[in-house]
Amino acid sequence: MRSLGWEPLHVIDWPSGLALGPYGLWLTVAFPVSGLLMAVFALGLRNALGKGTAARIGTLGLILAGCALAGLVFSTDPTFRSYPKTWHGFLHDMFFVLLGFTLLTSMLALGRAFQTHSRWKGYGLYTYITAALALPSFALKGVAFYLFLAAILTWGIVIAIKLLNLTNQTNE
What are the extents of the domains in the chain? Predict the structure, then answer.
């Protein structure tokens, strides 16, 4: 990553740039697998939240975010290069933008759905706060990007645990 210009506090080509290294196949495989898992997670969440408009929009957005995450399978271009942007680098960048847009839109709708669903009451505000923490990462680099990753990953784990607990309660 250092050869790509990466510094820990100045995020450039990360994490997608890892696919350009000797173990890049692992990340290349991780993108579509993660996207598929996100879509499956969204379907489970959709089942738990019911038929409200906010739940439909939020889970559809999460499914589209999973598709965009899978689209990151197209290799990125290094930021510092001696050649023009490639078609696969362009697609990678567009899928990243789509991922951010669909994920944030989804979180706003899911925040609303959580607020109106009795079993998810406290999770609406938490979802809004997570989305607010993620927004600056699109304009700021460095530490803001790490904050984005930590906030989104933590949110996904918290919501997945809640979904699992609700599923276990239903099955008992």
Answer: 14-79+86-171
